Amino acid sequence: MLARPSARHARRVRPAAWPLLDFLAPCIVTCSTSKPIHSPPARLRPLNDSQRRFLDSALRVNQAGELAAVLIYDAQTPLMNRSHPHLRPLMKHMYDQEAAHFGKFNHLIAKHRVRPTAMYPLWRVAATALGWSTALLGREAAMACTEAVETEIGDHYNEQVRVLLDWAEKTQARGEDLGDEMRTLMAELRKIRDEELEHLDYAVEHDAKEAKPYELLTNVIRGGCRTAIWISERV
């Protein structure tokens, strides 16, 4: 009968590989020389014609809208700074954010080879005139302008985010991947939307609703924004 080895001399059996959780990817990797076990990647579905049309119109109108916002603040700022110096930091903050949004859509529209709106010259004149005239009417009117514009722009970005969320849900249901490009765009739209809605809050905090005549002024501006959005999506 063979003697059993003592516990002290017993050879410890080591597993072929110790599993380690990879926190950077949805898979398990091992510390052995065996190949990592990866979950099969989801298929990346190319954009169909409808989705491509949406992307084209979204980037085109967003670029035009951010250009208008930059020009409105650019026209308002000198008059506002002169008559209300305490608003200088706020005006600069909002202008800088709009300029960053405009730069982002300039990059995306070039990257995706999207044609800018043909209405650029008209929107330049209209936005500059709107900014200058509301600042001339006073602080409350300038803030009412911001409130009206950002209300429409916030709703517009919300609708675009809803469309992208619908895409994501449908592609996931088919076992496909929306793609990093569209996920990044959705995150950017959410970030920009939130900053636009912050501008709306700033405007209300600085007496936008005290503008005279408030209802007429904001309704006209909001109607103009909706018209400009509709045209820029198509032309």
TrEMBL record:
<keyword id="KW-0479">Metal-binding</keyword>
<comment type="pathway">
    <text>Cofactor biosynthesis; ubiquinone biosynthesis.</text>
</comment>
<feature type="binding site">
    <location>
        <position position="101"/>
    </location>
    <ligand>
        <name>Fe cation 1</name>
    </ligand>
</feature>
<keyword id="KW-0496">Mitochondrion</keyword>
<dbReference type="GO" id="GO:0008682">
    <property type="term" value="F:3-demethoxyubiquinol 3-hydroxylase activity"/>
</dbReference>
<keyword id="KW-0831">Ubiquinone biosynthesis</keyword>
<feature type="binding site">
    <location>
        <position position="66"/>
    </location>
    <ligand>
        <name>Fe cation 1</name>
    </ligand>
</feature>
<keyword id="KW-0560">Oxidoreductase</keyword>
<dbReference type="GO" id="GO:0016709">
    <property type="term" value="F:oxidoreductase activity, acting on paired donors, with incorporation or reduction of molecular oxygen, NAD(P)H as one donor, and incorporation of one atom of oxygen"/>
</dbReference>
<dbReference type="GO" id="GO:0006744">
    <property type="term" value="P:ubiquinone biosynthetic process"/>
</dbReference>
<keyword id="KW-0472">Membrane</keyword>
<feature type="binding site">
    <location>
        <position position="199"/>
    </location>
    <ligand>
        <name>Fe cation 2</name>
    </ligand>
</feature>
<feature type="binding site">
    <location>
        <position position="98"/>
    </location>
    <ligand>
        <name>Fe cation 2</name>
    </ligand>
</feature>
<comment type="similarity">
    <text>Belongs to the COQ7 family.</text>
</comment>
<dbReference type="InterPro" id="IPR009078">
    <property type="entry name" value="Ferritin-like_SF"/>
</dbReference>
<comment type="function">
    <text>Catalyzes the hydroxylation of 2-polyprenyl-3-methyl-6-methoxy-1,4-benzoquinol (DMQH2) during ubiquinone biosynthesis. Has also a structural role in the COQ enzyme complex, stabilizing other COQ polypeptides.</text>
</comment>
<feature type="binding site">
    <location>
        <position position="98"/>
    </location>
    <ligand>
        <name>Fe cation 1</name>
    </ligand>
</feature>
<comment type="subunit">
    <text>Component of a multi-subunit COQ enzyme complex, composed of at least COQ3, COQ4, COQ5, COQ6, COQ7 and COQ9.</text>
</comment>
<protein>
    <recommendedName>
        <fullName>5-demethoxyubiquinone hydroxylase, mitochondrial</fullName>
        <ecNumber>1.14.99.60</ecNumber>
    </recommendedName>
</protein>
<keyword id="KW-0408">Iron</keyword>
<feature type="binding site">
    <location>
        <position position="196"/>
    </location>
    <ligand>
        <name>Fe cation 2</name>
    </ligand>
</feature>
<dbReference type="GO" id="GO:0031314">
    <property type="term" value="C:extrinsic component of mitochondrial inner membrane"/>
</dbReference>
<dbReference type="Pfam" id="PF03232">
    <property type="entry name" value="COQ7"/>
</dbReference>
<feature type="binding site">
    <location>
        <position position="196"/>
    </location>
    <ligand>
        <name>Fe cation 1</name>
    </ligand>
</feature>
<keyword id="KW-0999">Mitochondrion inner membrane</keyword>
<feature type="binding site">
    <location>
        <position position="150"/>
    </location>
    <ligand>
        <name>Fe cation 2</name>
    </ligand>
</feature>
<dbReference type="GO" id="GO:0046872">
    <property type="term" value="F:metal ion binding"/>
</dbReference>
<keyword id="KW-0503">Monooxygenase</keyword>
<dbReference type="InterPro" id="IPR011566">
    <property type="entry name" value="Ubq_synth_Coq7"/>
</dbReference>
